[in-house]
Amino acid sequence: MKKKNYGNLFILFALTVFFAILGGMLYTGNIGRQFTNMLIPIFMYIVLAVSLNLVVGLLGELSLGHAGFMSAGLFTGCLVSIRLYGLVSDPLRFVISMLVGGLVAAVFGLIVGLPTLRLRGDYLAITTLACGEIIKTIITNLKITGGARGLDTGHVYSGAKTLFPYAVVLVYLTVIVMMHIKNSAQGRAIMAIRDNRIAAESIGINVTHYKLAVFVIAAFFAGAAGVLYGHCFANVKAASFDYNVSIEILVIVVLGGMGNIFGSIAAAVILRALPEMLRGFENYRMLIYAIVLIMVMVLSNNKKVQSFRYMVTGKLKKKLRERKAAKQAKKGGEMNG
Amino acid sequence: MANKVKLVPGKSPNLFTERDAGKMPVLECIHLGIDFGGLHAVQDFDVAIGPTEITGLIGPNGAGKTTIFNLLTKVYEATSGTVLLNGIDLKGMTTPQVCKMGIGRTFQNIRLFNNMSVLDNVKAAMNHTIDYGFATGILRLPKYAREEKLGTEKAMELLSIFDMQDEAGDRAGSLPYGEQRRLEIVRALATEPKLLLLDEPAAGMNPAETTELMENIRKIRDRFEIAIFLIEHDMNLVMNVCEGICVLNFGQIIAKGTPEQIQNNPEVIEAYLGKKKEN
């Protein structure tokens, strides 16, 4: 129990360092334009991955509709932002639009969740994928969202410097909420459903209730992240948030490790930054990206690599325990003496 | 069928022990049955269990024993008959609701939450006592700390009754087989049942572990004062621990009674060993 909390503190500490470095670089102008443009999308992917991790890692269900929830939030949030432009102060406008975007996405999560969550495994994955596509198609065909040309968000466009604080707060919020859920009675119920649904029901856990709650919470954060994303472009098209994006988020979650919040954050940063860093390789860029991805997946699932990792961490833990025991023995000795 | 006695709800004649005589049975099944297509998996299952009785359910493989447990816990909905728990009809309830009503169970093939700690396995079963919602958990209101502390204390107390307090931090999936079985019982007890269903608790255990299990079963009854209904193939355990026994064959009760009565019942011997050749 205590160890887990140290793990959480470590994640928050690492995040703070990461934000401090990025913020320092951003505001002193020591960061390239290319990377400045990437910052907000990276943050968005962190939020998306961490929230999807709640569904995939904790609940153990495959959802391929996360991009759909995100774009539902994105478009409503941006529309609200456009309407409110000039009426309220900018910070209030951002907060309201993110909240509205998140809530609308949560409602979509509920609407999609109610009929589909009776399904499991592959069936749920395919159905959520379809729902994501339906949301995309609806938005593409609505007049209010600009149709196929996309929504013109030109006059609410904000640079990375303006959006950075909001992004930081959103990431913190998402991470803390996920941590708190994980270490609560509800988190235990969710993980119990993942590990054994039949046993979970037998000890009084209402599976549908928790599944729905997880879907709604994850969709809320996806929607809020979408609003953030919408503000760093002058034009957003629903067509660009298809199932490829959903799968990319899933790749981040799987790469970072199921249920591992820190892993999701690290994987989001690496996988988003990698293609940009590989620009030097030009045409071979995606090839190398794919190879790196395959290598990581294979290596992290390799029995030998795993046993090596356990050996190393086991030795470290043993050393720590010995040191602790020695300290306690010393203390006890002093007390006796 | 000599055993087809019509049961009157709340007034059952056939409790097995003197101790519970006159008390209202915790569980009553009245003509309980389920068909799978044309197959009558369980038919006319009548039983009444006193509030502190240990009752055994035995029978050859495929007799429908686990099906009865699944009927009681609403994994299946019965096609006929009634189940009364403390006089309340369980018709139309779901598995979690039945759990809240007071039926806890273990499974024939162990179903633990393998990737969670032993302590969390027990605490997961205490969600009805650990009383706070999503918002309290996320916002970490004072109630969260209070309830969690209380829950941990209760869970540790329960674990220490079964001598598992030292394993509280271990991953449930990494426990040895016997302890996994024990943890499953602890988890079922954490739901504070009035009736505990044990599905082959001694399966795969060595004689020493079985002896320990027998002690534990008696301990549970004495300490928690609940009824226990168990399926078991180990006749040593059944005959020693159970106060009443139902024998099931092809989905029907062929005998009911005390261990002595069952041991001398010709129909039971026939079901287990086959018919004597007549010449």
Protein traits:
heterodimer; A: 337 residues; mainly alpha; ABC transporter involved in vitamin B12 uptake, BtuC; two-stranded antiparallel ribbon; 2 strands; B: 279 residues; alpha/beta; six-stranded mixed β-sheet; four-stranded antiparallel β-sheet; 10 helices; 10 strands; globular; disordered N terminus
Describe this structure in words.
- The complex is a heterodimer of chains A (337) and B (279).
- Chain A has 13 helices and 2 strands.
- In chain A, α6 (160-182) runs antiparallel to α9 (207-230).
- Chain A has helices at residues 2-27, 33-59, 66-84, 90-116, 121-141, 160-182, 185-195, 197-202, 207-230, 243-256, 261-277, 285-300, 303-336, and strands at residues 151-152, 235-236.
- The longest helix of chain A is centred in the C-terminal third of the chain and has 34 residues, at 303-336.
- By secondary structure, chain A is an all-alpha fold.
- Chain B has 279 residues and is of the alpha/beta class.
- Chain B has a domain at 113-191.
- In chain B, β7 (195-199), α7 (207-224) and β8 form a beta-alpha-beta unit.
- In chain B, α3 runs parallel beside α6.
- The model of chain B is unreliable at 1-13 (pLDDT under 50).
- Classes of the chains: A mainly alpha (337), B alpha/beta (279).
